[in-house]
Amino acid sequence: DIDYEILQTFQKTGIVHVLAISGLHVGFILMLFMLITGLLNFPYKWQVTSSLILLFLFIAIVNFKAPVIRAGIMAALYFIATFRQQKVSSLNILAVAGLIILSWQPQQLLQPGFQFSFAAVGGILFGYPKLKQCRLFNSKSAIANKWLLQPFIASFCAVLATLPLT
């Protein structure tokens, strides 16, 4: 429902992506649901279960966009693995989320939202641990590492991974 002129301005400046609902929003929503259920003293399994149900409602409200579905599936798979006390591989969870989405809607493979979402998250999951170890990206200051370098590395990895698509 955004004004067409405003949308065009965002498109012309190349920042239209800030208007998109993404997987990051799913993380914020899930954290909010977990916080609320935690404050209500739900047992942990009920916190997760009710939060995932509420998350599914959020995904439905935003019309089942691929980046949001990806993040929701990844969150659900992560919790399932931890409940089963299995070691979690984030890249494997990303791959399974992709397979689930593509088995349901194969045409998503050609959609920019799907491509950018998976490329960005894959770039972060693959590149972040490697770049974090690099001396260039380490500071003697814990505050600089936590609040400046780590967010920079994550963003840098996402940008590098989506650069070919861009």
Account of the protein in words:
The protein is mainly α. The chain is built from seven helices and no strands. It has helices at 4-13, 23-39, 44-61, 66-83, 90-104, 112-133, 142-162. Helix 3 packs antiparallel against helix 4 (66-83) and helix 4 crosses helix 5. The longest helix has 22 residues, at 112-133.
Topology:
Elements: H1 4-13, H2 23-39, H3 44-61, H4 66-83, H5 90-104, H6 112-133, H7 142-162
Helix pairs in contact: 2-3, 2-4, 3-4, 4-5, 5-6, 6-7
Q: Which descriptors apply to this entry?
A:
7 helices; single chain
Give a short synopsis of this structure.
The chain has 166 residues and is mainly alpha-helical. The chain has helices at residues 4-13, 23-39, 44-61, 66-83, 90-104, 112-133, 142-162. The radius of gyration is 18 Å and the shape is globular.
